[in-house]
Design goal:
single chain, mainly alpha, 23 helices, globular
Length: 452
């Protein structure tokens, strides 16, 4: 047999990855915990907003700037680390990120001031920018494409769980021991997780980019369908597909609401709805719990629809798009509702329903990207999709200060958010067509007519 023929045979006959279900679910549990800590870190400034603004005598605009500073390097680091993921293991990347989370909480403990708040948030944003995409990338290495819906939902569910847990606990720390105590505790928790991950976190058997193996059901060149890794493609082609662009639009709309919920929702509940710190924390926990329930409910539905032959355009593409549109409508409505109960329900819809979009935009993106390039494209999607965090909190602060009253400023901010989210959701609905785009990229052998 000729050398090149032998090499080809070795490639095509590569052994299927040996699954380790116990290890896969251990990694899932660690990554869920990673996301819990991630969102607790993000939430701490918003939960401590009122005492910090009172102690440091901050205007709404200055506080908004500090909130937005979290995103100064967020998108850029997501892009850079996405490309690094093609050569560095997920074990190393997640370990390094989490250690930086711990360090980022320390400046404000030394000196509480605007510069140290800015420095800490900028460093934290740089370290957390790649967190969602890279932890999802690490998770995908432990599950074949046809079994990723539930792990994906659990990973993103860790975000909702993070807020669900963080809101009451961090609020209790702030009320009982001062807002600095919350920063100290989160620094310690991040460092502990990093040490545990270093011992237990390893790349899984479905890591094609590093092992050259194929999915265990794979025989072709498809991606996201259990059909192998396929060729490497120019990033320009991948990023210009309607599916990737629509997934970015979905992420963009969800991120606008998410950044508002972290930066301004606690302050809004306390100052405009006259809630106590504990009541505001409970409300935020309920909203997060609603988002978590949606995540857990949507994953089996998506799996069942795909098992019945429903295209990804409708099973996962339409679901995320409609979720963003529903959240947008609720966002536009609740400032004008007088009834407290009805307003809180709409607030829950506005800030909780977007949870569906976050795992699903990764799933639709993964279906049109070769596995060896998935981490980089996830980083790009996350980097662009989270740009609202750079704008929304700061813009909201300016609108509140510029409004006739703070209530008028909040209303303008929420209507702006609703408009952005509605446009983003509609763009995603019309653009996401994974089967069609995978076929056009040569990643799937099904006829183009079946892609619609």
């Amino acid at each position: 047999m000729a050398p090149h023929t032998a090499a080809h045979a070795r490639h095509t006959a590569a052994p299927a990855p040996a699954p380790d279900r116990r290890r896969a679910w251990l990694i899932t549990a660690l990554i869920v915990t990673f996301m819990v800590i991630n969102f607790a870190d993000k939430s701490v400034l918003g939960l401590a907003a009122v005492p910090i603004m009172d102690e440091l005598n901050l205007s709404n605009s200055t506080y908004g700037l500090i909130s937005s500073s979290f995103y100064f390097l967020f998108s850029l680091s997501g892009l850079l680390v996405g490309f690094l993921s093609t050569s560095l293991s997920s074990r190393v990347l997640l370990f390094g990120m989490t250690l930086l989370w711990a360090v980022a909480q320390l400046p404000v403990l030394a000196v509480a001031s605007v510069p140290t708040l800015l420095a800490g948030r900028i460093l934290l944003g740089a370290a957390e920018g790649p967190a969602a995409s890279m932890s999802m990338h690490a998770l995908y290495k432990w599950f074949p494409p046809e079994r990723r819906a539930l792990p994906s939902a659990l990973q993103i569910g860790g975000a909702a769980l993070g807020t669900l847990i963080a809101a009451p606990l961090v609020t209790w720390l702030i009320e009982a021991y001062g807002w600095r105590s919350a920063y100290a505790v989160l620094a310690a928790v991040s460092a502990i997780w990093a040490l545990v991950w270093w011992q237990a976190g390893h790349d899984g058997p479905y890591d094609h980019a590093r092992t050259g193996t194929r999915t265990r059901t794979g025989t072709g060149t498809g991606i996201g369908t259990g059909k192998g890794d396929g060729p490497r493609l120019p990033y320009r082609r991948l990023l210009s597909t309607g599916t990737v662009l629509g997934s970015i639009a979905s992420a963009f709309g969800a991120a606008w609401a998410l950044s508002l919920s972290h930066a301004w929702l606690p302050a809004y509940l306390r100052t405009e709805l006259d809630m106590s710190a504990e009541s505001a924390a409970t409300t935020i926990s309920v909203i997060s719990g609603y988002g978590l329930l949606l995540l857990l409910a949507i994953s089996p539905v998506v799996d069942a629809l795909k098992a019945r032959g429903v295209s990804s355009r409708w099973s996962s593409g339409a679901a995320q798009s409609i979720a963003v549109c529903v959240a947008a409508c609720a966002m536009a409505a609740f400032p004008f509702i007088e009834s407290t109960g009805a307003r809180l329900i709409l607030i829950g819809l506005a800030f909780g329903t977007i949870a569906i979009a976050i795992p699903l935009h990764y799933m639709t993106t993964a279906e049109v990207v070769p596995t060896s390039q998935r981490g980089a494209v996830f980083g790009i999607v996350a980097g662009i999709g989270t740009l609202p965090g750079l704008v929304a909190p700061s813009l909201t602060g300016h609108l509140i200060d510029a409004g006739e009253t703070p209530a008028h400023g909040y209303t303008a901010a929420f209507l702006t958010a609703a408009a952005v989210m509605l446009v983003a959701g509609l763009l995603a609905l019309t653009s996401i067509r994974p089967e069609r785009d995978a076929h056009r990229l040569g990643l799937d052998h099904r006829p183009a007519g079946g892609a619609h």
